[in-house]
Structures are given as C-alpha cells and as structure tokens.
Amino acid sequence: MSSTFARFPPRLQQAIATRLGWSSLRPVQELAGQAILDGKNAIVLAPTAGGKTEAATFPLLAGLIEREPQGVGLLYIAPIKALLNNQCDRFATYAEMVGLRSFVWHGDIKGKDKQAFLKEPAEVLLTTPESLEVMLLSAKVPHTKLFGDLRAIIIDEIHALAGSDRGTHLLSVLERLITAANPLDNSPNRDVQRVGLSATVGNPEQILIWLQGSSQRQGVVIDPPKIPAKREIAIFQRDVLGAIAREASRKALGQKSLFFCQSRALAEDVAERMRDRSTEVFVHHSSVSRTEREAAEESFQNGNNVCILCTSTLELGIDIGDLDNVLQANAPSTVSSFLQRLGRTGRRAGQTANTTFYCEDMETVLQAIAIVELARSGWVESVRCSDRAWTVLVHQLLALTLQFGAISPERAWQQLSFIPDFRGITDEEYKTLIDHAIAEGYLFYSGGLLSIGERAEKIFGRKNFMELYAVFSSPILYKVKTATGYVVGSLEQDFVDKLVPTMSSFLLGGRAWLVEAIDHKERSIRVEIAPRGTKPSWGGFSPQILSYELCRKIHSILIEDTDYPYIDEQSRYSLVEKRNELGVLLRQQPFCMIDDGHRVTWWTFAGGQVNYTLKYLFVYLRSNWKIVADNFKISIESPDASVQSLRYVLDQVRSNFDWQSSEHRTEILAQLPPYRFSKFQPLLPDPYSVEIIERYLLNWEKTREFLQTQT
C-alpha cells in the first residue's frame, strides 16, 4: 500500500515539504490519513500537540484540491471560541499553501467580513456549535450555496462535547444543516464525512458510534501506540491558601505557569493572595470580561514571568505559547482533566510534562494521588452518552419553529428522531412533550403546524432570540464596571440580588471590589477598588460527583502500604495518619461501618452516584432516618439507627427489593432535590425534568453491582 504522503496530490506534497519543512508524517498522521483518504469517518486520538489536527486536515484538504468545492468544503468546529481563534492562523496557512482560503465565523467577527464571506465563501470554515446554529436560523445565510457541497467536518476536542448537551446540540445542528443545504433525499452530498479529534477518552468506539449520526460511511478509531514520556509530578499539602499562594508564587517566578483551580471563587481568592509577589498574575474564567481574558493570553505570549489562575477555560488544547509549569490547587475531579492539563507542558524539545498539586487537606491529597495512579495505569473515564437528551430536544423544537416559521410535529420529529441522543425517546413520549409545550404556552398549534409560543418568546426572544442559541445554561449576567466605564467582568443575578451598595464587596478578576451602585434596568454594577474582599458564591449548588473507579482507588491507597515518591513529607505524614486511623478499619472490615452512639457512618468509597442512590433508597425504606451522603460515605442519624439495623436493611434490599418496580422508582425519584442543569429544563414535563436529575445523581445498575460485593 502506498504511504499517506504518496497519496496526497503533488501540490499538497510540495507544500508540506517546502512550506512546512516536514520530511515525514507522524504515525498518527499516517494511520489517520489512510482511513480518511479512503472516505471513512474517524476518531483520531493523540496527545496534546501530537499532530492530530494535521492528521485530519491534510487528507481532507487533498480531496478539496482534487475537486474544488462550490462553497464550503471543510467545516472545522471547536467547542470554545478561544480554541477557534487559536487555530485560525494554522488553518489559514494550510489552506493558503495549497491555493484555498479559510474563514472564521463567530460573534466577534465584524458584520462586513461576514457579508464578504457570504458573497464569496472560503473553502474552509471554522466556527463553534452556537455560531453554526445562528447561521442556520439566519434568513441572510444562503444554506445551499454555502453548504450544498460540504464534504467533511472536523470536530476538535470531541470528548468535551460527546455526552453533553452541547454535543447533542452540535449533532442536531449538523444534521439539520446538511438537510437544509441538500433538501432532496437522494442528494449525493447528504453523507458528509466526519472526523473527531481527542487527546483523552476512555471509550473511543462509543464516541465514534455517536459521531456517525445519519452517516452510513465506515468508521474507524485511530489510536497509535503511545510513546512513554517522562512526567514530573509533585503533590504538596498546605493547610492554608496563604501558604499555597506563597509557594506557587516561588514556583512560578520567572516562568510561564497555568494555575488550575476547581472553582472561580478559588481562582479569585488565590490570585488575590499571589499579587505583589513579583509575578504578573491574571485570572481567566468565564465570568471575567473578554478584555481581561485577552490581556492574560497576550501577556502570556509575550512575557516570561506570568501566572494565569484559571478554571477549565484553558484546559482544552489552546496554544498559549511555551508553558513551563502546570500548577493545580487541590485536585481535578477526573483523570481526563488531569491529562488535559498535564499535556499543556512538555511541548518543547527537552522539556518534561509536569504538574504540581497544592492541596488544602488530606482528602484532596488522596484524590490527587488516586488520579495520578489511575493515569499511570492507563485508565481514563468513559464518556457517558445519552439517548434521552430532553433539554436539547425541546431546544431544537423551538429552533426548528424559528428556522421554518412553523413546522409540523411529524416533520420536526423526522429531522430529530434519528439523532443518537434522541433515539431512546419514544413517539408517545415525544407527543407528551409537544402537548405539554402547547399547554404551557411555549409552542402554539395552528393549521397542523407548531410555532414558537408567547411564553417562550418572552423568555428567549430578547436580542433576536440570542438567548435561544446557547444550549447550556446562560444565567442573567450583570456587567461590573468602574467609574471610568472599564468592564471588569460579570456576576450572576442571584448573587447581585444579595449585594448592598456602599456595603458589599466581592472578588472578581483577582481583585477586591466595593459596590457603589446597582442599575437593574441596565444590568450593571458600578464598583471601586476595595482594600479587602469576600468571595462571591459562584455557580450552582448540585454536589460534585466523583466516579466509582476514582473512589475505589482512594480506598486501595488507604488499605495498602505503597509509598508514593512524588508526595511531600507533610502529605506522607498525613497519609500514614489516615492509614492508621481509617485504613486499619477498612482492612479489618471490608464492609466498614462505624457507630459512634448517635450516628452510623458507612465508609463505602463507592462514588457519588452509588452513595446518593443508596441515600434515597434508605430514605424510602426508613423515612425516619436522616441521611447525609457524599462520594466516600453515608451517615445516618436516628434513634433506631445502628450497624445491625443498617445491615438488616441492606439484606432486605439485596434479597427482596424489586429494582424494576416503577412504583418504587417513582416514589424514590420524588425525593430528589429540584436541581437545575439547563435553562430549558423548566420547559419539560415534571417526569422528564426529574429524569435529568436522576441521570446526574443516581446509578441504579452500579449500585446493585456494588451491593453484591458487600457482604
């Protein structure tokens, strides 16, 4: 078989050799190139900076060279705008060197540039899922002219989309776009080739099935053998944030560092403590203004003494220049996140990928060790795909009414029912959703067609329905401005409602601000710099769920006597103490329950979903028990609670409980808190909304499996 490079058109071969100076392709590029040139759909796996972008792009450009498209031939989709901007120059170079053009489309691109593109489309288009929806709903965008000859789609960082509302939304929009651009059922361009790129995913075969959608092409996972690489890991336990900030500042001095934090509040707090320590400090998260984020990125590109405190906004493969250090406050919740962050370093020749953890307590030290050890063993979380994505289904119904003005329920279901994320929803359930939306005023039915209802228009109709385009929750935000009009960032309304002018202060952008005035009509807050600040309550209130596998690994760490050379003396001392306290009990009692007279604690180390399933199951069976659960244990307070009574209930569950009973299931689900995971969730019938909460919080099958191991 000829090599991938030999199969490229001469123009592409010459450009790669002369313009890029490449003498060979990497293994992932060779393997992916063969499959993509053969017309297959593919998931391409490679470490960050491992060449997977070129592995997908070059063979797809080869097809465009041999037969130039009429309009856009290649669509590149990134989950976030920052990654899109980051890839802009790279795609411009690759397209230009073979005589093609590329264009980036998102909300920050000027209208005149978009108009020029619509008049004369480039062959390669880079965009985000939300911007693609805007194009699809716009009457000014000629869909057939633009996308009627679309050949292929590249989805970058696909693990960040699959299994999420944004992934379901993207797949739905792609299918609708292909249909709109090729309205004839027998159009030869309906089966568009699809390529997904990812650095870390535990179940790539499942992701490939998800990516296929309506495509009938063959699919393949490209996962070349990984070359073992040296990694430097260090875990430090420091009990106060001041000590963490002080040591991180020393580590970052004179270098470029990313400091990942698990919450925006923590990022703000640590940033404030790191200021005035000889290192330039920035904060980068979704509530910080675009100006502030861009200033951080620019300073990072041009400086050598910069530390950016960030959440997951810089976790994806954005190239922000040569990076010396990855720092981590406490521990991420997944192995996948750890590997993504670790992969930001070690890109330069002679440099080693590294991560330094600064943990506030022994619990996060254990979590960090477990994540590192699972990564060393090659284990990564699987993406959990759903075939009952209710919130996106109702969103897509509203979007279809806007796209067509009005649409029949049958035609809408015809466009959506074959999408993998909706295949588990029955025709009868779909009809129930439609009836509910009509009854509640979100849709109205006239002449056999559905149109957007007055209630939905009131909620999502502002600014030409811009509230509808973003699938994931977009709470009402207030701009935070100084007296000179400089925008510091934004705060959510729930937090703003608690502020008192001239009295309240908060942290944002790594600084403390005093509230001068609040304008609810303009949704703005005027502030001045305050000497001290208190951190705002960012985000929601739903519990953080750790996986069963991660929690079982922590259990293993506690009962074994393995030494971990990458932890510091304080961490090692705390680990010995924890092993002597809890570890001894876990070794003696695999089924570890402790009765301290007024509370029974069962140390399950089974993860959040199993423990919350057990919690609500116990509440159903013993209504007088007060139960608190987390990822590692279940605590029961009640006059009649004892180790013996808990064992009795568990024996009942193992032997007599009917896990398939709809009556049991309904009564248990009725106890779940009304968590809100999507702004479209309130549009659903109650049972469908509860199902979303159930999916996040509970896992019936894993709980049954776990109980069979506990005797």
Automatic annotation (TrEMBL):
List, alphabetically, the PROSITE patterns matched.
Answer: HELICASE_ATP_BIND_1 (PS51192), HELICASE_CTER (PS51194)
Q: Which Gene3D superfamilies match?
A: P-loop containing nucleotide triphosphate hydrolases
Task: Supply one GO molecular-function term.
Answer: helicase activity
Q: Which domain of life is it from?
A: Bacteria
Annotated TM spans? none
**Pfam families named among the record's database cross-references:** DEAD, Helicase_C
Q: Where is the Helicase ATP-binding domain?
A: 33-219
Q: Could you tell me which InterPro entries the record lists for this protein? A: ATP-dep_Helicase, DEAD/DEAH_box_helicase_dom, Helicase_ATP-bd, Helicase_C-like, P-loop_NTPase
PANTHER family per the record?
ATP-DEPENDENT HELICASE LHR-RELATED, ATP-DEPENDENT HELICASE LHR-RELATED-RELATED
What is the name attached to this protein's record? DEAD/DEAH box helicase
Organism of origin: Pseudanabaena frigida
